[in-house]
């Protein structure tokens, strides 16, 4: 009797989870996992062929977690091998290289591939996502800044970490937060707790910052037609200023977006009678 109770307690405390890594080829997925599991870095590129599989044990609070890691190949060539492995994951590590914009832009298509392969029963709310902005040690070649990456991640309720598999920066912090969130989710009946990543900004604010960053000129930035009147420019400006004012908006990149809007308005008003 005693041992049965003990066994039940132990069962409750141990947990098995499956996590996968996603992202373009050569962004550093395998190196991030190797840095965490083996505490080392390999500078030579050894492309993952299809899938690499590994198991590790971690301790989160009073629970022992057995983590099955499926490290996916990023190359399109391996799609047929990869697509089998999306199902039943509790956690996803999404990786991009901060020196390659296309690897950041590809994150959306990685999510789409995953959703497609998981099929109609896919419940993205039961999965913890962590985004790794990797290779931050190569600061000179960096093209995707922190606010852009953080905004993409946090506006989706995903964790965001700046990492370097080479130096080890951010790697342990990232895995600790990742495993602890997965444990919280499992204890919460398999649903991502609402306060999982407390973003503190709205989807509208995030989308507006993204739109401002991508705008081609000042008219476009304020969302008015070329040739708009002073009144129209001021009206559009006021709306954006209320949305993005640094006192009100804590979204990553909001301060720069706000400044850009102020400058756009000033330059447009100079040329409108
Ligand atoms: P696939 O398996 O083809 O999908 O690639 P991957 O994403 O697993 O990339 P991998 O971990 O094999 O790393 C690719 C290359 O980037 C290797 O040459 C690594 O040494 C290098 N690399 C990975 N992470 C870092 C990093 O943080 N900093 C630097 N400087 N190089 C890194
Ligand atoms: Mg790999």
UniProtKB/TrEMBL annotation:
Q: Which CDD domains does the UniProt record give?
A: DnaJ (cd06257), RJL (cd04119)
UniProt GO molecular function: GTP binding; GTPase activity
J domain boundaries: 217-273
> Which SUPFAM superfamilies does the record associate with it?
Chaperone J-domain, P-loop containing nucleoside triphosphate hydrolases
Pfam families recorded: DnaJ, Ras
Q: Which NCBIfam families match?
A: small_GTP
Protein name, per record: J domain-containing protein
Biological source species: Albula goreensis
